[in-house]
Structure formats: C-alpha cells, structure tokens
Amino acid sequence: MDSSPAALDRSRRQLLESFSEAFLKSIKDSVMVVDRAYRIVWTNGLWAGRRREDPDRLLGRRCHMVLQDRLTPCPRVCPVTPVFDSGRPQVLERSWRDERGLEMWGENRAYPVLDQEGRVVLAVKIAFDITQRKADQKRRQQYLESLEGALRGAAGPQAAAPDLTARQSEVLRLLAQGLSNREIAGVLGLSPHTVKSHVVHVFDKLGVNDRAQAAVWAARLKLV
Length: 224
What we know:
Layout: H1 5-18, H2 21-26, E1 30-35, E2 40-43, H3 46-51, H4 55-58, H5 63-68, H6 80-86, E3 90-97, E4 103-114, E5 120-129, H7 131-153, H8 166-176, H9 181-188, H10 192-206, H11 211-220
Antiparallel strand pairs: 1-2, 1-5, 3-4, 4-5
Helix pairs in contact: 7-11, 8-10, 8-11, 9-10
C-alpha cells in the first residue's frame, strides 16, 4: 500500500472530485474520510475536537491510531473495512462508557467513494450519537414488558379477539410502541387525519378509551 505524501495528495484530489469541501463542511455530525491505507484524508474537526487535536494535524495519520490507539484497523467496531471489502455502505452500532460511567451509544455509517474504473478508493465515515434513541427504546421495551406482565396476571375470562383490518393492526402495533399519530402517519405514509380516523375505529373495536388500554390489547394480540 503506497503511503507516500504523493499518494495522500492523490487521495485528497479523488475526494474533492466527488464532493466539494463546502458540502463536507456542511455536515453537522462527525465526518472522517480515509483511504485504503486507513489514512485520514479529510475530517470536519469534530473528531479532532473529541481528541483535543488540531484537525489539520490528523491528516495523513491512520484513523485506528487516532481513535483507538491501535496499530492495526479496529476489528468489528468500524464499518470502514467492510466498505473496502464489499464496495457497499455499512452500518454498525457500538456502546461504551464515558468518563462518568454512563452508557453511550453511537451509530457509524460508512460509504464508498469510487474512482472512474469503479474501484473503492475512499470511505466516508459518519458517526451519529444515538444514546437518546437507545434510551427511548429501552423505556418502551420496559413499558411493553410491564403490560405483558399485567396480562399474564389478569384474572377472569378474556374478551374475544376483535376483528381488525390489516391497516388497523398496523396502527395498533405502532401506537403500542409509543408513536404519536403524526409519527405513525410518517411510518405508514398516511395523513395524520387518516391515522386519527384509524385510531378511533381501533378504540371502538377494542372497547377502550385510551392508548394505554389499546397497548394492552396489542400485547394480547402479539402485535408487539
């Protein structure tokens, strides 16, 4: 693998042939572009800020040495190698503990940059903080587990299963996951007004008055 300064300059030219620097700088999340030798060709500075280094000083350095103090590419926690191997975008999630001992989550996405012959010459890696999303998912899962526990402990005969349409079942499933009408509309490609109408019909068929009661039915029907 050519690691000369000329090779690094060539990688930078290939990058700027595909993307303008203004476009790269407009991305608000952490961005790092590396070549096949895992050298940093470009970064928007957010990576550097986390490492308390000048972004210009990172250019030409190996990303695995900068981010993980490793002599070799990071196994399993970085999507860059699979991008170079397969030529397809990759997504990986990872968790870690910060200096306060709190669990943090990140989503790393990597995309190939091809030359004129269709070969992967660079990988663009974008990192997103998904800690809040993971916390929301955990709370939602705990909520659903508590509903299932309440169902298992419920006494007395169970009402007959309601006759829901396929669309109404979809709405009920998403409703039980904690989504608002507007969020359900976005997932299903419907208007909020149409979703509201479905929710009303679902409530009528289930004989319930609120979303919590509907979520109990969703768990009973194994929709969640």
